[in-house]
Amino acid sequence: xxxxxxxxxxxxxxxxxxxxxxxxxxxxxxxxxxxxxxxxxxxxxxxxxxxxxxxxxxxxxxxxxxxxxx
Length: 70
What we know:
Layout lengths: L7 H8 L4 H25 L3 H20 L3
Helix pairs in contact: 2-3
């Protein structure tokens, strides 16, 4: 996170080829997932049930990204 890799610039340029509706799908689902994670992280502390729920949200993000080949 935050590291500039040599493949970043070409990857970012190629991502412009992704149709707008696909980028909107990705953005919508990733943002929703991150908001869910942020909310849970604020209340999680030492609650094992909340930790399990947080893991579910992370897996959901991964599944959404996988649907579009990411």
